[in-house]
Amino acid sequence: MKHFCIFLLLLISISSFAQKTESPYLEILTPNAVIPLKSTKANVKISGNIAHVHIAQTYQNTGNTPIEAKYLFPLSTQAAVHKMQMTIGNRTINAQIFEKQEAQRVYDKALKAGKRAAKLDQQRPNVFQMNVGNILKNDLVTIDIYYTEMLVPLAGSYEFVFPGVVGPRYTGENTSGETNFNQPYTKKGIADTFDYDINVQINSGIPIADVSSNTHDINVHYPITRKAEISLTSKNQNPSNRDFILRYSMRGREIQSGLLLYEENDEQFFAYMMEPPKASVNMQTTAKEYLFVVDVSGSMNGYPMEVSKKLLRNLLVNLPETDHYNILFFAGGSSTLSNTPLPCTPENIQKGVNFLSNIRGGGGTNLLNALKKAYALPRMDETSARSMIVITDGYVSVEREAFEMIETNLGQANVFTFGIGAGVNRYLIEGMAKVSNSESFIATEKNEADAVAEKFRNYIKSPLLTQIRIKADGFNAYDVTPSSIPDVFASRPILVFGKYKGDAKGRLTITGHTGNGVFQKEFNISDGVLSKDNEALKYLWARKKIERLDDYKRRFRDNTKQEVIKLGLQYNLVTQYTSFVAVDHEVVNKNGKQITVKQPLPMPKNVNNSAVGAAASVKGKTFIKRKKRVAIAKADTKNLNEKATVWFRENYTKIIKKYLKTYDGIRVEIAKDGTIVKVEILINGSWILNEVLLERINLLDVNEAYHFGQKVTITLKNA
Questions:
Q1: Do residues 25 and 625 touch, judged by C-beta distance below 8 A?
Q2: What CA–CA distance (Å, rounded) separates 290 from 379?
Q3: Is 411 helix (H, G, I), strand (E, B) or coil?
């Protein structure tokens, strides 16, 4: 019991300062470190519902030895990556698509021959790795990546997401031996190690309205009402440590629905988007059961946990008394509020709020074990329909195993997901919901929790359209995806991709059931838009088919892999089994010797250093920009401990008083240059390391800095 109290008090102290945001940092990594990525810049052109994205990654070798740079970075889960180029000086080399093993062979052969080469691999549908080899001293190598994706509006509002960073992944439940996520991370709050910029242009047939971003400070310019130009301002600090999210709508909340057509050689493609019917005013509400499965692992510690608590509290207090609920918290282990679902009475809701208030984050993220336990919990009754709400940042590496578990248990619960944080694992968050034919939600900041909870409540009221069927008359459509359309709950349009033969004529008929009865809508194919500008349709159709075959499945038919490879090679797409390789003809490194450097990734915004597991690493010392700092005065070695104690008390009086009111003592280790490198707190006779207090101390201004000449440890105790 004594150890539990110590642990609980420690976690309380950590959470008390976890919400503080970081100041600008001056130094980033160890001296003379080779940081290969010089800049990453994105230019986005959104035409109608399709986003065309061009990313330029520039690599530079600032050292003396030839290097191979490795960079793990995220893209949209919907990205169809269809082109890559490598530019050195005035030469541009177009990359070729290969089956993955062949791509590795071509790349390795080029490096051995002393040629510059680049290779792009997909590790997850939203995680890619760039390898650029034989970069010589002072070389500048630019890699251009091109992808497209379809933007699907929700309730008339569009959202474009450009992911910023791959968050650290917990690999404790991964038995495959995967090492892709063993990446170095800069410490929380460290300045970007590379230049980052993004520019977006929106072109629409309808006047554009309400362009905004909650993640970055932006400039918005409207040359005309149907065009918007968006850029980042200079106010953004560390802009690469979070997803860039841009939201906009059309005047009157119109959706650019309709039919797009594209023809190339012997292939013809189409995409059809239809706005769903309006919600029925006669919708009947039925009693529901909710099981909240909440991630409280180390990566959720601090600010993400506070966002989760606000979200969950909002969801709980608005449940009707006819509903039932339960809560399961998980990290390395798990704990539940109750053995059986509780009626949503005011008293029981208060139990949940109290249970929520006392939880603190820490430990691993055993998601599979949590899902297994959640499915095993008893229901409200034998016939009740359960909704499982998983709240997490998704920092795990067992996505496909989670998808498989959900698919195996589809009859037991609908799985909704809430992603918490500025750079969540959208592959997991979106995939779990997609496999369950439900919906995912993202809350990047605490002030979004209320709005996200409201979206969920509106979503689950009742479906807008069920038993949906699409029929083609006089239009020879085939290879249509999705093959079956799930029920439509929110105001999200129906979207289908496909191919067709013959002339673009006939009609499409959509039928279904609403709260008001049978729904039917017809669309004449002749009203569709056939244009060479719709080339993206071939990539989007192929990407959607690959998603259906491979993205969310752990086990599949023997020929599925070959089918995905065929699609990747035919349509020039990066997949799990196909990769881009660009090879320069010039031999620049005859002996082929080089060192491999992993590009350090920014710690995602508001995520603590404790999120990084032992297989990865956190680099860099935290140096804060000081408002007041005098010339360093060297102290003599006499009475060193006393001098250090006086100096520390004079500079950190307020925080010392605050902590000594709660704890028995504080022990501080100071490096010889005066840098505070370690802080411990005394609880019930035991010294406990406190990294949050260390960061908090380093955020404060110092009136006078000392160079002590040697390491010194001081202890402050309550009188």
A1: yes
A2: 10
A3: coil
- Structure tokens, 467: 């038993």
Query: How far, in Å, CA of 207 to CA of 404, rounded?
Result: 43
* Contacting residues for 44 by C-beta, under 8 A, at least 6 apart: 51, 52, 53, 54, 160, 162, 198, 199, 200, 201
Among the four given CATH numbers 3.50.50.60, 3.40.50.410, 3.40.50.1240, 1.10.3720.10, the one describing domain 288-461 = 3.40.50.410
Structure tokens at 389: 């709400």
The three-state DSSP-derived secondary structure of 628-672 is: CCCCCEECCCCCHHHHHHHHHHHHCHHHHHHHHHHCCEEEEEECC
Q: How far is CA 398 from CA 30, 171, 549, 685, in A?
A: 33, 8, 18, 40
Amino acid at 461: K
Is residue 620 scored above 80 in pLDDT? no
pLDDT in tens, 197-243: 999 999 998 899 999 999 999 999 999 999 999 999 999 989 999 99
Half-sphere exposure for 403 (CA within 13 Å, toward CB): 20
Distance CA 293, CA 365 (A): 12
Is the entire prediction scored with pTM above 0.90? no
Architecture of the 25-171+181-251+573-587 domain? Sandwich (2.60)
- Domain residue spans of the chain: 25-171+181-251+573-587, 288-461, 640-717
Give the integer Cα–Cα distance in Å for 284 and 322: 13
Could you read off the pLDDT of 91-106 as tens digits, one per residue?
Answer: 999 999 999 999 999 9
